[in-house]
Amino acid sequence: MTDHPLPFRDPQLSFSRRTDDLLGRLTLDERIAMLHQFAPAVERLGVGPFRTGQEALHGVAWMGPATVFPQAVGLGATWNDDLVRRIGEAVGDEVRAKRAQDDRVGLNVWAPTVNLLRHPLWGRGEEGYSEDPALTSAIAVAYTRGLRGDDPRYWRTAPVLKHWLAHNNETDRDTASSSVRPRVLHEYDLRAFRDAVRAGAVAGVMPAYNLVNGRPNHVSPLLEQQLRSWTDQPLVVCSDAGAPSNLVDSEHYFDTHEEATAASLKAGVDSFTDHGTDSTVMTGRIRDALAKGLIDESDIDRAVRRLLALRFALGEFDPELDPYAKVDALDTEEHRALALEAAEQAVVLLKNDGLLPLEPTPGRTVAVVGLLGDACKLDWYSGTLMHRSTPLDGIRERYGAENVLFAEGVDRVRLKSSDGWLRAPAADGAADAEARGAEGALDPALLAGRTDLPPLTCGEAATELALVDWGDGVLTLRTDEGLYLSVADDGYVRASADEPGGWVVQETFRLEAVEGHDGGHRLLHMGTGGYVSVAADGAKVAVSGEKISRDDATVFALETVEYGADAVARAAAAADTVIVVAGNDPHINGRETEDRTTLALPAQQDRLWRAAHAANPRTVLVLTSAYPYAVTDAAEALPALLWTAHGGQAAGTALARVIAGDLSPAGRLPQTWYASDDDLPGLFDYDIIGSRQTYLYFDGTPLYPFGHGLGYADFTYSALRAEVDGERVRVSLTVTNDGGCAADEVAQVYVREAVPVRPDRPMEPGTAGGRRLGRQLPAGSVPSDLPRLKLAAHRRVHLAPGAAVQIQFDLAVEQLGHWSVAHGRWAVEPGRYEVLAAASSADIRLTATVAVDGTARGPRPVFSRGLEAADYDWQRGTEIVDRAKTEGDSVAPASATEVGQLIYRACDFGEGVTGLTFLVSGEGCIDVSGGGLGMAIQYPDTGGPYEYRAIEVDAAPRGVVPELCVGLSGTVRLARIDVIQAEESA
């Protein structure tokens, strides 16, 4: 017997030694068990159970009451790194406090989401920070540092970044492939993850459901080639829920689950989130993969070692030394104040013709109108509110309830069938149920609707319902008691829900006109796809699990008792000023699993602001939403517009304080607000360069530009200086508050090449060297389609009236560069670059120029390096696909019936080339032209998409070819082109 602890229990040893010791003591079955999200205890060693994954995007989610901060996109709108770090600290503390109350709460938090807001119709835009990689990185670094904590040894929580990689569509999200060219990959998508990982406060990543370049993210070689090259920390990769099974079930990428699981493990996935808390399915697949020789024990050990290292860092084995072990800060006064500060800083003033601020004065009346006027909306990743402030609450508190009018603007309707009016019976003393999710749930998707209330019936007395059309004809119906019509698992329709919600929303319907029935409608339940039928036992949409068909639906006559626009007009006419609050419900028409279809404000809400403005020109429109809207008419007609994301528990108070002028708004847009759907590329077009997406490339005129935001004070920028100092660019500028009130300003620094190319569209064949634009580029030195400008740094500062501050920025020279497809590396070409001091991406105040010395890299060295097909300069009608299931890219036509085109510029073939080799699979034709070449190469089927063949052709290109044009047709997959030199063919 000995009193000495086992080495893994010895806090004097390094985490690495302790991890290795514990790993060596585990049996094979114990190690395999640790690879599931819910790892069981190893009681013989005194090791407890462990779970990966605790949602904490903007507060502790899914585990009951917690402080609710603004949505992530709202945190991005603050442009305030320090604030977001403090929020991260508060959320981390609340995770610890909740863990002390409930051991189901995990310390491995799945947050933040760093997917870039490339496309404003993406359903999960509310979860990201910005369309810009620099701003996203800065906010993510701040949040993860707060979550991680400052202790050099122990972590407060262990943040996991979501979702790796290039994931911006909910439509077909588990089967769609994002075609991401190398420049977009390195300059855009990877950067959002890279900077946060390099900052040292990230514990891992979660791969996304989608595929990138034809290969599922859960078997991406980039996990090892890129992610784990950025740090020496043992990063943990946690699969998304159900994604390991998707590799076979929906993606059909592998034939068997054993193959898929083995490939994921070898690619770098460590923790498998699949089949809920039942680990037997995944651990069984791992055992089978091992038995078949698809993996060996070293693959298992590598993953378990990383998971154990995470657990040591979280203090699991040293509770007496863990500085966060006794944290109990939940719903503290400091956290409540922080939630208010965050909500205030997230408000963006889009337009102001002098109507704001609206100072509360005796006798001044304010009308609050609109569907979100008295709402405090939560999203899928929110916690349960402990405090709640709606815009109406905030305005009443600030202006006095006696001075505030309210009209929600719902259409009040009644529904009548042949058996009478649709009605919600009295509950007969049924106890009020706790709000959905209030008790906490590991998987809130499993929370069921109430069945303790009677279903709707038809009779002589009607229940008047508040009807809201959230767009595309998607309706909610609510009683005067505030209960939404909802469907529970038994298929009956009840007035039972406090708010729309759930993984499958059960509170949305659609009215369908019935031919042959004047004014008759069927009522379709969106969640089940069943139609409402009213029988003797009540209204239902399904019987014994079978949804009711349209032929069996009850036909209703819709009677409108009052139009919401009329109520809004009355309230507006009776007030001095009108505040219209419009926006979205985060569970409807744009959320996880559902993309938006349009930038337009829903028609019902559009009618409301128009009615208010017609009755009272002093109308302010407040957009409370997770997304941008194309409100061009409102922007032109109304004197003031504001936007804020759903602001959490203090949203209403914050909005009222901004409107009243208690503080000057200084939020800035984290993404471009486009003027029209016509400005948008396709949802699945991930080539932001080729399709001119985001402020980096967009050539049109946005409704409001990236970085835009007004305040109640004017600021002057002066004394901009920039100089290169080795590998750094030192920048300084002075900002002065010229206004009459204290206010924040967000100083933004952008960079670009000194003579930027501004093409109306990406350069097309026949424009080599930029000649169409009147600018001769050195052969192959700089791409013709670099960003118009790109954010390099920002700082939010607070200044008293008349005060000035000098702000200094320390930039890396590499921030001036781009990914060179010609040379396969990051490149900062010698030349002159502009450093721009700006109040937004469209409001440049000052410009300085710096020079970078060095030698230009020159044209594409095809003679020595060959040509990777995916390293094109321009393309049309192609997509990047997987060369093999493990690694590599090829290019294929996007359509089997059309020719895909590729352009490679400034290709240096040197001297002595006698032929070219094309590495291809599939079958079809390759057309090659340029530099004296003109050939069509037709070849037969190689035997499959992964069966490659080298096809040699005689060709003698010489020197630098300005443009090598390649056309692809059929099922061709082109991997690369190599040269045949004279001595090789001798």
Description of the structure:
The protein has 986 residues and is an alpha+beta fold. The chain contains 20 helices and 49 strands. Strands 13, 14, 15, 16, 17, 20, 21 and 26 form an eight-stranded antiparallel sheet that branches. The protein has a six-stranded mixed sheet with strand order 1-2-3-4-6-9. α1 crosses α11 (297-313), α4 packs parallel to α5 (133-148) and α8 crosses α9. The radius of gyration is 30 Å and the shape is globular. Mean pLDDT is 94; it is low at 757-764 and 766-781.
What share of residues are in beta strands?
25-35%
How many H/I helices?
A: 20
Helix fraction bin:
10-25%
- Structural class, from helix and strand content? alpha+beta
What does the radius of gyration come to? 30 Å
Termini separation: 78 Å
Biggest β-sheet strands, sense, barrel:
8 strands, antiparallel
What overall geometry do the principal axes of the alpha carbons give?
globular
Taking pLDDT < 50 over at least 5 consecutive residues as the criterion, the unreliable ranges are: 757-764, 766-781
The count of strands amounts to 49
State mean pLDDT (0 to 100 scale): 94
Multimeric state of these chains? Answer: single chain
